[in-house]
Amino acid sequence: MNEQIQPRWEVSPPDRDRLQHLPLRRIGAQTSLKAAITSPAILGVLTHFMGGRTLACIQGDCPGCTAKLPQRWEGYLGVWTTKPCKHIILAVTPGAALGIGDTAPDPVNLRGLYLTVERLGRRANSRLQARVEEVELGQIKLPEIPDLKAHLLHIWGLDQAHLGTDNPDYAAEVLRTYGRHTKSTDEDSTQ
User: Fold this and answer.
1) Is residue 189 part of a domain?
2) Which of 46, 66, 103, 139 could form a disulfide with 131 if both were Cys (CB 3.0 to 4.6 A apart)?
3) 176 Cβ partners below 8 Å, 6+ apart?
4) Which position has the higher pLDDT, 187 or 12?
5) Cβ atoms 155, 186 nearer than 8 A
6) Nearest CA to 150 among 24, 47, 53, 46?
7) Where are the beta strands (DSSP E) in the chain?
């Protein structure tokens, strides 16, 4: 490791207001999920499958584009599951996103709708189906709206690029690491 690149060590725990990172979940083969949507809309991003995981296609010198890997669109939603009670980020395919949009009363205001997603096929990349419906949540209080961009930047390891202003070599090191990154941070890394 370059001796000039050092982490920002801290001697005290983070403030309670600091971002608590949500896990990312993908729906595997022959699996379904039912949850309440906590984000107002689907956040879409172009991605590359590289190093055994999905990573964002980044502006500028993108390692995935340089390697001529195909781009694919992936959507993300904050959802609250009930069994177990957990706030997560759910990755959805373009087809599932269209299913959500087709069944939502207002596709730009999804918060509070009940989502059902299922992958009926035996393969991890078989078709993902999704639909939403309005239901009475009763006593369930939804968590705050998640900052999906901040969570995804953390998952992809791009949230520390701001350190490039303090150490110009750091931003380049993040890009080099990003290009060869193989460790999965997804809760369920099924593609």
Assistant:
1) no
2) 103
3) none
4) 12
5) yes
6) 24
7) 24-25, 31-37, 43-50, 53-56, 72-82, 85-92, 114-119, 128-133
Tokens of 37: 């949507």
CA nearest 93: which of 26, 147, 146?
Answer: 26
Instruction: State the average pLDDT over residues 68-88.
Output: 91
Res. 42 pLDDT band, cuts 50 70 90: very high
- Per DSSP, what are the bridge partners of residue 131? 116
**Residue 45 included in any domain:** yes
How far apart, in whole angstroms, are the C-alpha atoms of residue 160 and residue 168? 12
Residues in the chain: 191
pLDDT one-digit tens code per residue, 44-54: 999 998 878 88
SS3 190: coil
Confirm whether 119 is domain-assigned: yes
pLDDT at 116: 94
Q: Is residue 145 part of a domain?
A: yes
Q: Which domain holds residue 92?
A: 24-179
Note the pLDDT tens digit of each residue in 135-166.
Answer: 887 777 888 999 999 888 888 877 765 444 44
Within a 13 Å sphere around the CA of 71, how many CA atoms are in the beta-carbon half? 12
**What is the per-residue pLDDT across 115-130, written as a single tens digit (0 to 9) for each?**
999 998 899 888 999 9
Q: Of 24, 25, 45, 42, which is closest to residue 33 (Cα–Cα)?
A: 25
H-type alpha helices, the chain: 63-66, 94-103, 148-155, 168-179
Q: Determine contact, residues 1/162, Cβ cutoff 8 Å.
A: no
